[in-house]
Amino acid sequence: MDLRTLYNKAILGENLYQQVKQARSELYSKYPDSTPFVGKMFSMNQKEGFIKLAKNFKNLAAIMKGKDQQLIQNMHLVTEIGVLFLHFNAFLSTIQMLGTPEQVKYWENLALNFQVLGAYAQTEMGHGSDVQGLLSRADYDLETDSFILNSQDPKSGKYWPGVLGINCTHCVFQAQTFVKGQYIGVQTFVVPIRDKNNQMKQYPGVEAGDIGPKFGFQYTDNGYLYLKNYRIPRENLLMRYCQVSKDGSFKIAGKKAIKLGYGSMLNLRVILVASFCFGALSSTHLAYHNRELAKKYCEETYHLQKKQIGIRDIYFKEDFARMTSYLMSSLKLKEMYARYQKAIQQDDPNILSILAEIHILSAGFKACSSWAQLQTVRQNLIYNDPIGHLNWSGQPQRLGDSIPAPTYEGDNHVLLQQTGKYLLKLFMVIQKAKKSKESLSDKEKFMLGGELSFFVDCAFQRKAVDVLHNLNMNDFESVMKALEMTLFLYIQDVAQSIYSEIKTGEKPIHKLLNEQYQDRIVNYSKFFIHVMNVRFCRSYLLQNSFESKTEKTLQTLLHIYLLSMVDLYKVLMFTYQLSNASKLAPIANLKYQLYTQINDKFLIDSFENPIKEFQNSNSVDVFEKESQNIEAYLTETFTELANEQQKQTPRL
Amino acid sequence: MDLRTLYNKAILGENLYQQVKQARSELYSKYPDSTPFVGKMFSMNQKEGFIKLAKNFKNLAAIMKGKDQQLIQNMHLVTEIGVLFLHFNAFLSTIQMLGTPEQVKYWENLALNFQVLGAYAQTEMGHGSDVQGLLSRADYDLETDSFILNSQDPKSGKYWPGVLGINCTHCVFQAQTFVKGQYIGVQTFVVPIRDKNNQMKQYPGVEAGDIGPKFGFQYTDNGYLYLKNYRIPRENLLMRYCQVSKDGSFKIAGKKAIKLGYGSMLNLRVILVASFCFGALSSTHLAYHNRELAKKYCEETYHLQKKQIGIRDIYFKEDFARMTSYLMSSLKLKEMYARYQKAIQQDDPNILSILAEIHILSAGFKACSSWAQLQTVRQNLIYNDPIGHLNWSGQPQRLGDSIPAPTYEGDNHVLLQQTGKYLLKLFMVIQKAKKSKESLSDKEKFMLGGELSFFVDCAFQRKAVDVLHNLNMNDFESVMKALEMTLFLYIQDVAQSIYSEIKTGEKPIHKLLNEQYQDRIVNYSKFFIHVMNVRFCRSYLLQNSFESKTEKTLQTLLHIYLLSMVDLYKVLMFTYQLSNASKLAPIANLKYQLYTQINDKFLIDSFENPIKEFQNSNSVDVFEKESQNIEAYLTETFTELANEQQKQTPRL
Ligand SMILES: Cc1cc2nc3c(=O)[nH]c(=O)nc-3n(C[C@H](O)[C@H](O)[C@H](O)COP(=O)(O)OP(=O)(O)OC[C@H]3O[C@@H](n4cnc5c(N)ncnc54)[C@H](O)[C@@H]3O)c2cc1C
Ligand SMILES: Cc1cc2nc3c(=O)[nH]c(=O)nc-3n(C[C@H](O)[C@H](O)[C@H](O)COP(=O)(O)OP(=O)(O)OC[C@H]3O[C@@H](n4cnc5c(N)ncnc54)[C@H](O)[C@@H]3O)c2cc1C
């Protein structure tokens, strides 16, 4: 595999790249007005943007009709239409996961042919992370064989869902559900919102609209939705795990089935990890090209014609190191997800344990990679891209897309708390195992044996003194071992404090976990994900074969990433006596050496950036254009003016 | 002094607050359409924004006519018009500094009466930080008694100056200057750009325009400017330090005079430090109020009704701790600046040394406080403000204002390099002093005796072992001493490597400083500013008397800030054996204790936030409004609809 193949595979999935490229050029040749938003962000107001979005969407749908299903489901990759991402990866995928085979077939047909456009309406004004607290309500009405949906007060209004504001015809909708007065839990419905055949008129009983201009996804409509005694047919309840019959009898699947059903939702987080890597790398790619462009018009300052390495170059290389690592990990997460799906088919007895593990990993990786994307883009906008503040550099739009990522699809802190709570459990299990390994349940054994088994090694085998003794910054494995051991001891510390507070019984557990210890739990969970990131990459490198320059580059990038982790966590390494000043001393020079081994142009050329193509295809390359204008202007227009120049210009 | 007084004093200067408040309400009552931009950022495109800006400016100018000069010069504080900030603090102040008394009088009269609107045009397409490399050129033409200005190629075009794009009538303009073919250095001119009496038509020979939509200051025009054989009267050369006579004879002041002249420019950076604090705190203030508002509409989650402290609360308290510290330091910088001006008047023999010190401090403080502002606003937008992503929360606009701050008025890295180079010199002087104190020059003695004298103490008195021995996280002074000592040893380390590389003579010095060691120099300079920040605050607290609750609060905030510095630099403290795990252990609990001693509401209520007033006065408080609408809607409109509700809604 070469680097280009790796990037395309991770971002678009195997083989999709060529198809996406073709579809894109088809779109632009047939509909030249389908220009994307890059570089236009602040030249349009929200309304103008919405209109443009709707046009782009129509054109794209026309191109896509009848094409391969896999391509269609990745249509958002063809152009920057986030709307479609939600339609396929939130709306349709929820139906695919919670619907009966018949329901799936019915809605797939409509969704893939763009006869409906769907939103995912879960978050309410009063409830984001706390899904169990939702207030939207659905009551089954025997008489009319329909569900009556209600949002009873402002808190229960849906608030935030993308596409809900003006564009969608339908949404999937979560509500507390009652049949004959009996509560049957939070269920999911497909709810018609607007009539596509009648100028997208809202159905009576629906009150929906856009929540207002925002920073990030400016031209995507995010909506609110209030329903009052709104009737939908019984069959619009997604019935894979919860069947309600015409006579009001109902059957609800076991907890395990439901958990597994929701499990497929976490695929979205895995997809997001790759998409954040793409977002960050495309920003860095733009920055690099804008620097090349700027060379023509700017004096070659130190950093444009350098032999040495300064801050901008360090940022550049560290961006690639960080984001390429997340990208390789996203491929490992995809493999895990595939294994999980296979395990379902094979009725694996450990299936819930497998689910738990991939859940806490994908949650944690979503959080850390969205932060990494934001960091990368911010630095590009301010420092690395010489025209980064300007719209047509493409960076402001990248920033707009990165800013909400720590919030949507799960607030990062809340996600990392979930990762952290799993790690707390793991520590209890390790304590138990220390006393007697025999007493462990299968679930507990699985926890100790899966991807996190290095903790067991830390607990039972590794000795801090040996790890310290062997530590050598040039030796990847030894650094890795020291970081793992540090992480282990850090979590152990926090876990012990928490458990001893729990024992006193003075404070409720949820207060301890969600408030008093929240920051520490989030902190060690971040550290954990960084360690997993290195582990995943290293194993991806070992398990795949690469063209030699690519392999060397990937190893160097990973080493840089590893050392930046040491920088980040060296204080903990000191604290737990897993490092000291003399062990750390060589880092600065070693990093410097590693930087020089990276060929920037190789990284850049291996990354195919559709956003850069958009820029070119639309000639928003104003820098070049404007400079040309100015040159022309100087040579032509002014020669005349100069001649008839008035001798005296007024002082005022 | 109480906390409110401190804030108002630092942000607006003594006594100005009431006047600004009055002017603002006068503006809104006379011109209700002068609504500010808060909350409107993404509802207007750039053109709409420009038009609104021009209107607001006109109204404001009408209000201000004939008012007190100090108030007029702070007109940008009355409403969010950055244009005016540049007009007074860059355009007029440059004239005040480089013009003859006669020139100053002439332009002050026009500027204060808004008969001209000025830009500050220094940066060129090809030259930002490197002012000596400018390519714009001015030649004195004996025949017409005028200067002929030229931008000879695209690189020499001015690029970025605010107000230059569409609004200004004049700018101050830097150019390489020649008289009778003789080079007389970079000089500054007042250049007419547009005719105010003729629909702002550009004068022939001028080609100026807006550089395009951008993120940050979206509705401020940033411009480009090309001049071709453009004549301006000789008297438009600012002649305080460089007189050119009609006959082409000229007289240039000595280096010292010129340096002092430019010195007053650094006042702008001092002003910026306070303005970044204001930007950050107003964002935190909005976040707090938006959280209060949200309580009405959202379930009271852990973090809205808390006894304990979670991540959001920590962010909130640390924001206040960090930004209040910078604010107190800005007052110290203002004092230093006043002392500097007095020293000029008194012909102090050390005047250049005094200038050097305040220069490197204001440069470093500008850099670090602009980063701190960005960090605060980003966190508010994403986490602390429940509606932060939405425009009408006010946060996106705050972010837009914060993003370019690390770039304008000097790129932060370049500024910190200047601070860092001064510190390198200081180390050479300390080495010299170690050998023999007698051999020091007056300049060198001054360096060791000024605000940085604690380094001398570190070099000659303090012993690391004692400092470590006395270190106690509860004892402010002991922590301070350990941080200072760590900083000293860190700089010493880097300085020694640099000097030993310089000795070998293998690499040019500028390459070592500007490239190879750039990141390390920037790093220790940041650390230095943080230490100075604590030192300044502590001394401000000692030198002023406060109402007791205020004093307690300020001390607690400063202690929190100090401990966050320990968190940031503890790895260096370990490295130089100025801390260890057991000394650090109490930090987490101590911080927690300090957090609980802070009364959030006291902080919030003491901070008068005009931006919040704008929000109210313009009812952009959509959250409230919209929720009211929804409630009304639910109770009225829907009662009808519900009755005539069709029994069956189509599935599609
Ligand atoms: C651009 C964008 C697009 C979106 N698109 C959609 C969409 O298509 N469909 C949809 O349904 N939603 C969507 N959302 C909503 C999004 O999923 C929610 O904002 C998110 O789940 C967080 O919920 P919240 O905003 O209510 O925050 P909260 O749940 O109130 O969390 C905010 C903070 O409260 C604290 N907190 C919350 N719970 C806990 C806890 N248990 N313990 C400790 N602390 C806690 C944390 O500090 C957290 O940072 C979108 C949001 C954005 C910004
Ligand atoms: C919103 C905004 C408003 C502005 N308003 C004005 C205005 O009103 N008037 C005006 O004249 N200008 C204005 N500017 C321009 C601003 O002052 C310049 O952008 C700034 O001085 C930096 O110059 P530059 O962009 O050319 O970057 P450069 O000077 O090219 O610096 C960019 C990077 O190069 C590296 N670098 C540069 N020099 C060195 C060195 N000596 N050693 C090592 N590394 C180095 C650093 O890493 C630095 O981060 C504005 C800019 C912005 C963004």
From TrEMBL, chains A, B:
Residues 41-116 form the Acyl-coenzyme A oxidase N-terminal domain. One of its GO terms (cellular component) is peroxisome. One of its GO terms (biological process) is fatty acid beta-oxidation using acyl-CoA oxidase. Keywords: FAD, Fatty acid metabolism, Flavoprotein, Lipid metabolism, Oxidoreductase, Peroxisome. InterPro entries: ACOX_C_alpha1, Acyl-CoA_ox_N, Acyl-CoA_Oxase/DH_mid-dom_sf, Acyl-CoA_oxidase, Acyl-CoA_oxidase_C, AcylCo_DH-like_C, AcylCoA_DH/ox_N_sf, AcylCoA_DH/oxidase_NM_dom_sf. Residues 475-608 form the Acyl-CoA oxidase C-terminal domain. Its cofactor is FAD. It is found in: Peroxisome. Its main location: other. It comes from the Eukaryota. Residues 321-424 form the Acyl-CoA oxidase C-alpha1 domain. GO terms for molecular function: acyl-CoA oxidase activity; FAD binding; fatty acid binding. Pfam families: ACOX, ACOX_C_alpha1, Acyl-CoA_ox_N. Belongs to the acyl-CoA oxidase family. This is Acyl-coenzyme A oxidase, putative. It comes from Tetrahymena thermophila (strain SB210). The lineage of its organism: Eukaryota, Sar, Alveolata, Ciliophora, Intramacronucleata.
